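Issue 218. Parser rejects a valid record. Input:
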Amino acid sequence: MPRACAAAAAGSVGSPIRARRPTDRRADYDPLVAEIAPLAEVVADLVRDGDSVALEGFTHLIPHAAGHELIRQGRTDLTLIRMTPDVVYDQLIGAGCARKLVFSWGGNPGVGSLNRLRDAVEHGWPSPLELEEHSHAGMAAAYAAGAANLPFGLLRGYAGTDLPGRTRVAAVECPFTGEEVAAVPAHRPDVGIVHAQQADREGNVQLWGIAGVQKEVVLASARSIVTVEEIVDRLEPRPGAVVIPSWVVSAVSLAPRGAHPSYAHGYYERDNDFYVRWDEISRERETFTAWIDRHVRGTADVDEYHRSLREAGIAA
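Output the parser choked on:
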Protein backbone atom coordinates (compact mmCIF):
# COMPACT_ATOMS: atom_id res chain seq x y z
CA MET A 1 0.00 0.00 0.00
CA PRO A 2 1.22 3.55 -0.68
CA ARG A 3 2.91 5.38 2.20
CA ALA A 4 0.98 7.90 4.28
CA CYS A 5 1.32 11.60 3.59
CA ALA A 6 0.03 14.71 5.33
CA ALA A 7 -1.11 16.02 1.94
CA ALA A 8 -3.94 13.48 1.84
CA ALA A 9 -7.06 14.28 -0.13
CA ALA A 10 -9.91 15.26 2.16
CA GLY A 11 -12.12 12.30 2.88
CA SER A 12 -9.88 9.69 1.22
CA VAL A 13 -9.45 6.33 2.85
CA GLY A 14 -6.44 4.09 3.18
CA SER A 15 -2.91 5.37 2.76
CA PRO A 16 -2.74 8.37 0.42
CA ILE A 17 -0.28 8.94 -2.39
CA ARG A 18 2.63 11.32 -1.96
CA ALA A 19 3.13 14.44 -4.00
CA ARG A 20 6.43 14.25 -5.87
CA ARG A 21 7.46 17.76 -6.88
CA PRO A 22 9.70 20.03 -4.79
CA THR A 23 7.96 23.05 -6.32
CA ASP A 24 4.75 21.87 -4.64
CA ARG A 25 6.19 23.70 -1.61
CA ARG A 26 5.30 20.81 0.70
CA ALA A 27 7.40 20.23 3.80
CA ASP A 28 6.94 16.48 3.41
CA TYR A 29 8.30 16.25 -0.14
CA ASP A 30 10.12 12.96 -0.53
CA PRO A 31 12.00 12.29 -3.81
CA LEU A 32 11.18 8.60 -4.00
CA VAL A 33 9.95 6.64 -6.98
CA ALA A 34 6.38 7.23 -8.12
CA GLU A 35 3.69 5.14 -6.51
CA ILE A 36 2.15 2.42 -8.68
CA ALA A 37 -1.44 1.99 -7.55
CA PRO A 38 -4.97 1.38 -8.86
CA LEU A 39 -6.49 4.37 -10.62
CA ALA A 40 -9.47 4.61 -8.26
CA GLU A 41 -7.12 4.86 -5.28
CA VAL A 42 -4.88 7.40 -7.00
CA VAL A 43 -7.76 9.70 -7.96
CA ALA A 44 -9.25 9.46 -4.46
CA ASP A 45 -5.94 10.53 -2.93
CA LEU A 46 -4.76 13.17 -5.39
CA VAL A 47 -7.79 14.93 -6.87
CA ARG A 48 -10.02 17.13 -4.72
CA ASP A 49 -13.19 19.06 -5.38
CA GLY A 50 -12.30 22.57 -6.54
CA ASP A 51 -8.91 21.59 -8.00
CA SER A 52 -7.55 22.80 -11.30
CA VAL A 53 -6.99 19.68 -13.40
CA ALA A 54 -5.28 19.31 -16.78
CA LEU A 55 -5.83 16.13 -18.80
CA GLU A 56 -3.57 16.36 -21.83
CA GLY A 57 -2.75 14.30 -24.88
CA PHE A 58 -2.61 15.34 -28.51
CA THR A 59 -4.52 13.29 -31.10
CA HIS A 60 -3.58 10.09 -29.29
CA LEU A 61 -2.93 9.12 -25.67
CA ILE A 62 -5.89 11.18 -24.42
CA PRO A 63 -6.51 10.09 -20.79
CA HIS A 64 -10.14 8.98 -21.03
CA ALA A 65 -9.87 6.33 -18.30
CA ALA A 66 -8.71 8.94 -15.79
CA GLY A 67 -11.47 11.32 -16.84
CA HIS A 68 -14.01 8.58 -16.29
CA GLU A 69 -12.66 7.95 -12.81
CA LEU A 70 -13.17 11.63 -11.95
CA ILE A 71 -16.81 11.18 -12.98
CA ARG A 72 -17.23 7.95 -10.99
CA GLN A 73 -15.93 9.61 -7.86
CA GLY A 74 -18.21 12.61 -8.32
CA ARG A 75 -15.54 15.30 -8.42
CA THR A 76 -17.10 18.76 -8.72
CA ASP A 77 -16.18 22.43 -9.06
CA LEU A 78 -13.10 21.62 -11.13
CA THR A 79 -11.25 24.09 -13.31
CA LEU A 80 -10.47 22.00 -16.37
CA ILE A 81 -7.44 22.98 -18.45
CA ARG A 82 -6.72 21.57 -21.90
CA MET A 83 -5.33 22.91 -25.14
CA THR A 84 -7.98 21.13 -27.23
CA PRO A 85 -10.89 19.83 -25.12
CA ASP A 86 -12.76 17.10 -26.95
CA VAL A 87 -14.95 14.13 -26.03
CA VAL A 88 -13.59 13.39 -22.54
CA TYR A 89 -14.08 17.03 -21.54
CA ASP A 90 -17.60 16.95 -22.99
CA GLN A 91 -18.24 14.00 -20.69
CA LEU A 92 -16.73 15.71 -17.64
CA ILE A 93 -18.72 18.89 -18.26
CA GLY A 94 -21.98 17.04 -18.87
CA ALA A 95 -21.46 14.95 -15.74
CA GLY A 96 -21.29 18.10 -13.61
CA CYS A 97 -17.58 17.98 -12.77
CA ALA A 98 -16.59 21.38 -14.14
CA ARG A 99 -16.92 24.98 -12.99
CA LYS A 100 -14.49 26.56 -15.47
CA LEU A 101 -12.76 25.63 -18.73
CA VAL A 102 -9.38 27.06 -19.77
CA PHE A 103 -8.72 26.19 -23.41
CA SER A 104 -7.84 27.28 -26.95
CA TRP A 105 -10.14 25.13 -29.12
CA GLY A 106 -12.98 22.80 -28.32
CA GLY A 107 -14.85 20.31 -30.49
CA ASN A 108 -15.51 16.72 -31.49
CA PRO A 109 -12.59 16.21 -33.91
CA GLY A 110 -13.76 15.63 -37.46
CA VAL A 111 -17.42 15.63 -36.40
CA GLY A 112 -18.57 18.98 -34.99
CA SER A 113 -19.41 20.72 -31.74
CA LEU A 114 -19.29 19.40 -28.19
CA ASN A 115 -22.96 19.26 -27.29
CA ARG A 116 -22.54 19.10 -23.53
CA LEU A 117 -20.06 21.99 -23.57
CA ARG A 118 -22.51 24.08 -25.61
CA ASP A 119 -25.40 23.23 -23.31
CA ALA A 120 -23.41 24.28 -20.25
CA VAL A 121 -22.34 27.58 -21.81
CA GLU A 122 -25.65 28.45 -23.44
CA HIS A 123 -28.11 27.08 -20.89
CA GLY A 124 -26.17 26.43 -17.69
CA TRP A 125 -26.83 22.66 -17.70
CA PRO A 126 -25.93 20.82 -15.58
CA SER A 127 -24.30 23.96 -14.15
CA PRO A 128 -22.93 27.23 -15.56
CA LEU A 129 -19.48 26.98 -17.11
CA GLU A 130 -16.98 29.84 -17.01
CA LEU A 131 -14.71 30.08 -20.05
CA GLU A 132 -11.14 31.35 -20.28
CA GLU A 133 -10.09 31.22 -23.93
CA HIS A 134 -6.55 31.55 -25.22
CA SER A 135 -4.73 31.08 -28.48
CA HIS A 136 -3.10 27.71 -29.02
CA ALA A 137 0.35 29.30 -28.79
CA GLY A 138 -0.70 31.08 -25.60
CA MET A 139 -1.69 27.81 -23.97
CA ALA A 140 1.62 26.22 -24.96
CA ALA A 141 3.56 29.20 -23.56
CA ALA A 142 1.59 29.01 -20.31
CA TYR A 143 2.38 25.32 -19.89
CA ALA A 144 6.06 25.87 -20.69
CA ALA A 145 6.24 28.66 -18.11
CA GLY A 146 4.60 26.47 -15.49
CA ALA A 147 7.00 23.63 -16.24
CA ALA A 148 9.93 26.02 -15.76
CA ASN A 149 8.43 27.35 -12.50
CA LEU A 150 8.11 30.82 -14.00
CA PRO A 151 5.18 33.16 -13.29
CA PHE A 152 4.24 33.80 -16.91
CA GLY A 153 5.01 32.90 -20.49
CA LEU A 154 5.88 35.21 -23.38
CA LEU A 155 4.93 35.05 -27.03
CA ARG A 156 4.22 37.14 -30.07
CA GLY A 157 0.49 36.78 -30.30
CA TYR A 158 -3.01 37.98 -29.44
CA ALA A 159 -2.45 41.25 -31.35
CA GLY A 160 -5.29 42.07 -33.70
CA THR A 161 -7.75 39.77 -31.93
CA ASP A 162 -10.48 40.39 -29.37
CA LEU A 163 -8.93 37.91 -26.91
CA PRO A 164 -6.95 40.50 -24.86
CA GLY A 165 -10.26 42.03 -23.79
CA ARG A 166 -11.76 38.68 -22.92
CA THR A 167 -9.03 36.66 -21.22
CA ARG A 168 -5.98 36.85 -18.97
CA VAL A 169 -3.24 38.28 -21.16
CA ALA A 170 -1.13 41.43 -20.83
CA ALA A 171 1.22 43.39 -23.06
CA VAL A 172 4.77 43.78 -21.73
CA GLU A 173 7.81 45.57 -23.09
CA CYS A 174 11.04 43.70 -23.70
CA PRO A 175 13.73 45.33 -21.49
CA PHE A 176 16.36 44.72 -24.17
CA THR A 177 14.69 45.69 -27.44
CA GLY A 178 11.61 47.64 -26.42
CA GLU A 179 9.41 45.24 -28.41
CA GLU A 180 5.92 44.71 -27.06
CA VAL A 181 4.99 41.07 -26.56
CA ALA A 182 2.12 39.19 -24.96
CA ALA A 183 2.39 37.68 -21.47
CA VAL A 184 0.14 34.86 -20.27
CA PRO A 185 -0.02 33.57 -16.69
CA ALA A 186 1.68 30.22 -16.21
CA HIS A 187 -0.48 27.13 -16.01
CA ARG A 188 0.19 25.51 -12.64
CA PRO A 189 -2.53 22.86 -12.30
CA ASP A 190 -3.21 21.25 -8.96
CA VAL A 191 -3.28 17.94 -10.83
CA GLY A 192 -1.86 17.02 -14.22
CA ILE A 193 -3.03 13.80 -15.86
CA VAL A 194 -1.56 12.14 -18.96
CA HIS A 195 -1.68 8.72 -20.62
CA ALA A 196 1.39 6.92 -21.96
CA GLN A 197 2.30 3.59 -23.48
CA GLN A 198 4.64 2.29 -20.78
CA ALA A 199 6.02 2.75 -17.31
CA ASP A 200 8.65 0.64 -15.58
CA ARG A 201 8.32 -0.71 -12.06
CA GLU A 202 10.10 2.33 -10.64
CA GLY A 203 7.48 4.65 -12.11
CA ASN A 204 9.54 6.04 -14.99
CA VAL A 205 7.27 6.73 -17.96
CA GLN A 206 7.86 6.56 -21.72
CA LEU A 207 5.55 7.75 -24.48
CA TRP A 208 6.12 7.91 -28.21
CA GLY A 209 4.36 8.93 -31.37
CA ILE A 210 2.81 12.39 -31.59
CA ALA A 211 3.77 14.27 -28.45
CA GLY A 212 1.78 17.18 -27.12
CA VAL A 213 2.47 18.94 -23.83
CA GLN A 214 2.46 15.85 -21.61
CA LYS A 215 5.95 16.49 -20.26
CA GLU A 216 5.16 20.14 -19.53
CA VAL A 217 1.89 19.24 -17.79
CA VAL A 218 3.59 16.83 -15.41
CA LEU A 219 6.38 19.30 -14.61
CA ALA A 220 3.96 22.21 -14.14
CA SER A 221 1.52 20.40 -11.86
CA ALA A 222 1.61 20.15 -8.08
CA ARG A 223 0.48 16.51 -8.31
CA SER A 224 0.56 14.25 -11.34
CA ILE A 225 -1.07 11.02 -12.46
CA VAL A 226 0.09 8.92 -15.41
CA THR A 227 -2.06 6.08 -16.73
CA VAL A 228 -0.29 3.56 -18.95
CA GLU A 229 -1.04 0.74 -21.34
CA GLU A 230 1.42 -1.58 -19.62
CA ILE A 231 4.03 -1.77 -16.89
CA VAL A 232 7.31 -3.33 -17.97
CA ASP A 233 10.51 -4.39 -16.26
CA ARG A 234 12.64 -2.08 -18.39
CA LEU A 235 11.93 0.81 -20.75
CA GLU A 236 13.53 0.19 -24.14
CA PRO A 237 14.80 3.43 -25.73
CA ARG A 238 12.81 4.52 -28.76
CA PRO A 239 13.68 7.25 -31.28
CA GLY A 240 11.85 10.46 -30.51
CA ALA A 241 10.29 9.15 -27.31
CA VAL A 242 9.52 11.33 -24.30
CA VAL A 243 10.70 9.96 -20.96
CA ILE A 244 9.20 11.35 -17.76
CA PRO A 245 11.29 10.35 -14.73
CA SER A 246 9.59 8.88 -11.70
CA TRP A 247 10.69 11.63 -9.34
CA VAL A 248 8.35 14.15 -11.01
CA VAL A 249 5.38 11.74 -11.08
CA SER A 250 3.08 11.32 -8.09
CA ALA A 251 1.46 8.07 -9.20
CA VAL A 252 1.25 5.61 -12.08
CA SER A 253 -1.82 3.49 -12.79
CA LEU A 254 -2.28 0.63 -15.21
CA ALA A 255 -5.17 1.37 -17.60
CA PRO A 256 -5.12 -0.81 -20.74
CA ARG A 257 -7.00 0.90 -23.58
CA GLY A 258 -7.22 3.90 -21.29
CA ALA A 259 -7.01 6.35 -24.19
CA HIS A 260 -10.01 4.98 -26.10
CA PRO A 261 -11.61 6.30 -28.30
CA SER A 262 -8.37 8.08 -29.17
CA TYR A 263 -5.51 5.83 -30.15
CA ALA A 264 -2.29 4.73 -28.47
CA HIS A 265 0.49 4.56 -31.03
CA GLY A 266 1.71 0.97 -31.34
CA TYR A 267 -1.20 -0.45 -29.31
CA TYR A 268 -4.55 0.29 -30.98
CA GLU A 269 -6.11 2.56 -33.56
CA ARG A 270 -8.45 5.51 -33.22
CA ASP A 271 -12.11 4.50 -32.93
CA ASN A 272 -13.51 6.88 -35.54
CA ASP A 273 -17.00 5.38 -35.29
CA PHE A 274 -17.16 6.27 -31.60
CA TYR A 275 -16.52 9.94 -32.30
CA VAL A 276 -19.32 9.97 -34.85
CA ARG A 277 -21.64 8.13 -32.48
CA TRP A 278 -20.79 10.51 -29.63
CA ASP A 279 -22.50 13.37 -31.47
CA GLU A 280 -25.78 11.47 -31.31
CA ILE A 281 -25.27 10.20 -27.75
CA SER A 282 -24.46 13.66 -26.39
CA ARG A 283 -27.03 15.69 -28.34
CA GLU A 284 -29.83 15.27 -25.80
CA ARG A 285 -29.45 15.45 -22.03
CA GLU A 286 -31.40 12.24 -21.49
CA THR A 287 -29.36 10.08 -23.86
CA PHE A 288 -26.12 11.52 -22.52
CA THR A 289 -27.09 10.87 -18.90
CA ALA A 290 -28.22 7.33 -19.69
CA TRP A 291 -24.89 6.62 -21.44
CA ILE A 292 -22.78 8.04 -18.59
CA ASP A 293 -24.82 6.20 -15.96
CA ARG A 294 -24.51 2.87 -17.76
CA HIS A 295 -20.95 2.93 -19.07
CA VAL A 296 -19.08 5.17 -16.63
CA ARG A 297 -20.90 5.56 -13.31
CA GLY A 298 -22.18 2.00 -13.63
CA THR A 299 -18.73 0.47 -14.07
CA ALA A 300 -15.93 0.04 -11.57
CA ASP A 301 -12.88 0.59 -13.77
CA VAL A 302 -11.55 0.75 -17.31
CA ASP A 303 -11.93 -3.01 -17.83
CA GLU A 304 -15.61 -2.95 -16.87
CA TYR A 305 -16.09 0.16 -19.03
CA HIS A 306 -14.86 -1.66 -22.12
CA ARG A 307 -16.87 -4.75 -21.25
CA SER A 308 -19.95 -2.54 -20.96
CA LEU A 309 -19.31 -1.01 -24.39
CA ARG A 310 -18.91 -4.44 -25.95
CA GLU A 311 -22.16 -5.65 -24.41
CA ALA A 312 -23.88 -2.59 -25.90
CA GLY A 313 -22.46 -3.39 -29.32
CA ILE A 314 -19.98 -0.50 -29.29
CA ALA A 315 -16.52 -1.47 -30.51
CA ALA A 316 -13.91 -1.01 -27.78
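Fixed in the parser; the record now loads. The CA atoms of residues 54 and 81 lie 5 Å apart.
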